[in-house]
Write a structure and sequence with these properties.
It is a single chain. With 310 residues, the chain is mostly helical. Helices cover 76% and strands 3% of the residues. A three-stranded mixed beta sheet has the order 2-1-3. The longest helix is centred in the last third of the chain and has 36 residues. It starts with 10 loop residues before the first strand and ends with a helix. It is found in: Cell membrane; Membrane.
């Protein structure tokens, strides 16, 4: 389909996080440092899992390595552009670039949601069915579950972009955010998109709520099962799953809020978008490494091998 027949807008203007020049200079330095630490932190986890045979053969760490890989993409789809825009007077993005941001946000975000459900299932099998753990969570099963999460993320994303890209954009082109977010972009179309918007937002909301409910059910079953088996089991289960529960809460909280009130003009939406796209990928490596002895030991071994090699 020829986009030129449907769109007169060739670029969008992003409002960014703020208009203050002093704040923008501060944000340039601050978010540059956050982005570098985020990419390096997640990359170290990926390299550690790949290089350590014990971790690489473990279903939990195999899934964690995939989560870190996704976090690198989640942090990179909009943050580098936002950082560059802090030094620009006009924050412009092409029509194609805008659609690409929407695609990658929903692709990576949708994939990560399903992957978090997979990680919860992994913990359920490890705690509730320990004798069958390696049989149930075989490498073939893990790879299959990861591929399913990528396919669901892709189908979800392409369904969002397919409708958005074919809308007629012929007038206003200002997006009140630092990246092209779906609810903000479809409001700029030159036709009534209320019903279409509700359908598209419902798609995202359904995926978010479905994954969130599955996660709640998984961790509830884990706690009930362990509590019935042994005294003090709940605290041990919470200790094992605490990192996962923390990540799930941080990930789904902003996501559900944004898509339950998609057309709100309240400035908290922008803050939640920053938290969702920048700080969650930044916090995940800290949560998983600071609370995980095996990961810290493997990182030390990797560092010592690197020092010895040089």
């Amino acid at each position: 389909m020829d986009l030129q027949n449907y769109s007169l807008v060739s670029e969008f203007v992003l409002h960014g996080l703020c208009t203050s020049q002093h704040l923008q200079k501060f944000f340039f330095v601050f978010f540059s440092e956050i982005y570098v630490v985020t990419v390096l932190g997640n990359l170290i986890i990926v390299v550690t899992v790949i290089s350590d045979l014990h971790l690489h053969s473990s279903p939990m760490y195999f899934l964690l390595g995939n989560l870190s890989f996704l976090d690198i993409w989640l942090a990179s789809f909009a943050t580098p552009k936002m950082i560059r825009d802090f030094l620009s007077y006009q924050k412009l993005i092409s029509f194609g670039g805008c659609m690409a941001q929407i695609f990658f946000l929903h692709f990576v975000g949708g994939t990560e949601m399903v992957l978090l459900v997979t990680m919860a299932y992994d913990r359920y099998v490890a705690i509730c069915k320990p004798l069958h753990y390696m049989t149930v969570m075989s490498r073939q099963t893990c790879v299959g579950l990861v591929l399913v999460s990528w396919v669901i993320g892709f189908v979800h994303s392409i369904s969002q972009v397919a409708f958005t890209v074919n809308l007629p954009y012929c007038g206003p082109n200002e997006v009140d955010s630092f990246f092209c977010d779906l609810p903000l972009v479809i409001k700029l179309a030159c036709r009534d998109t209320y019903v279409l918007g509700i359908l598209m937002i419902s798609d995202s909301g359904l995926l978010s709520m479905s994954c969130f409910l599955l996660l709640l059910i998984s961790y509830t079953v884990i706690l009930i099962t362990v509590r019935q088996r042994a005294a003090g089991g709940v605290s041990r289960a919470l200790s094992t799953c605490s990192a996962h529960i923390m990540v799930v809460t941080l990930f789904f909280g902003p996501c559900i809020f944004i898509y339950m009130w998609p057309f709100s003009r309240f400035s908290v939406d922008k803050l939640l978008s920053v938290f969702y796209t920048i700080f969650i990928p930044f916090l995940n490596p800290l949560i998983y490494t600071l609370r995980n002895k095996e990961m810290k030991i493997s990182m030390k071994k990797l560092r010592n091998r690197h020092v010895t090699f040089h």
